[in-house]
Prior knowledge:
The chain is α/β, with parallel strands linked by helices. Helices cover 42% and strands 17% of the residues. The protein has helices spanning 4-12, 33-49, 51-57, 59-73, 86-95, 113-126, 143-149, 172-180, 201-204, 230-235, 270-286, 288-307, 334-343, 357-362, 379-391; strands at 21-22, 80-83, 104-108, 129-133, 154-160, 185-189, 208-212, 224-228, 246-250, 253-256, 312-314, 325-329, 346-347, 349-352, 367-371. The strands form four sheets. Strands 2-8-7-6-5-3-4 form a seven-stranded mixed beta sheet, sandwiched between helices. Helix 2 (33-49) packs antiparallel against helix 11. It is globular, with a radius of gyration of 21 Å. It binds pyridoxal-5'-phosphate.
Amino acid sequence: MFSTEDIRRVRQETPGLGHRVHLDNCGSSLMPEPVVSAMKSYLDTEMRLGGYVAQEQQLGALSDAYDSLSTLFGGKSTDYALASSAVDAWTKAFYSIPLTAGDNIVTVFNDYCSNYVACLQRAKRDGVEIRVARAKSDGTLDLDHLADLVDSRTRIISLAQIASSDGLVADAAAVGKIAAASNAFYLLDACQSVGQIPVNFAEIGCHMATATSRKFLRGPRGIGFLYVNAEARAKLDPVVITNKSAAWVADNEYELATDASMFEAWEKSCMVQMGFGQALKYFLAMGVGKATGQTQRLAADLRGRLKSLRGIKVECPEAAQAAIITFNKEGWDAADVRVAMAEKGVTVQVSTIFHTRLDYTARGIQAAVRVSPHYYNTPAELDQFLNTLEDL
Length: 392
Ligand SMILES: Cc1ncc(COP(=O)(O)O)c(C=O)c1O
């Protein structure tokens, strides 16, 4: 649990707090000052020395991001490739998995829009079937159904660990056991889970996992990562290769990297990479259990209080517990609630049917206001949010 001193320090180190109540942390959270400083200082070095010399001088610091990723999320630092976003990382992994007509992809009812449209494209292009594991009556993923859908032609099992539309946490390790007994690659979308709950990809048993920096990890925009284990690397030929993923060793030959850099581009923003590395260090220094525990405690409090507000319909299934809560206010469009709250200095987001069509269609939801606390929010801020919502 956070002490008063923890809260004071964290808030002092977060310049974005204090002016507004920021409750869109699953969209993009507020960076701590050390992250911003690391980027400013790197940019300054680039300004003085030029990009290449700056990079050479700070190679050690730049590689910290990979080490921290493996410390935080399991595996080795060589299992991690950096990408420009979670979707960039996910598509690189997904499109590298060969599919032939008659194969199938098993995904879930609350899959994320970008992942699902990619499945639709491959269904069209490669003649594969998409199989969707359904929800049980309590709203959670029906693992028995998922297991039944997997057969000898299943090549990909795709799961979003925490849905961005309602904070349901899937049992990713149970899916790992199903995947282990199949021929499929298990591709985990951990975009909303890293930084929000403890996550270990090696323990979950996924072959590949993807996430971004800017959400619960509190890093900058423009960077994400791919975890890809040795077994998957040995079997996969990346859909695109670059001068980082392969060396041009003879006129007609190249040698593919054997570590996760086989999926990486050489050119990227080193400044952003420094910021991301700093965000990971910040999270490590705070302690994963402490940080994620505080986030979840605030979320449980907020969820409970929202449920008891008159005229508010919480749109999440009963079993949803994470720090992403969706709701509607009687007589109001979700988009108008967002705008009205913004005018009162409270930042929330809207989740629509375009983000998770299968799930929202089945539950008759077009859009919902989405609110997501982080450990740095205070009970007083939650009060302000709830009072503002009530007063609209
Ligand atoms: C579950 C999930 N996956 C993927 C993404 C995409 O992340 P990015 O925009 O960093 O590519 C999001 C973003 O909201 C998400 O919630």
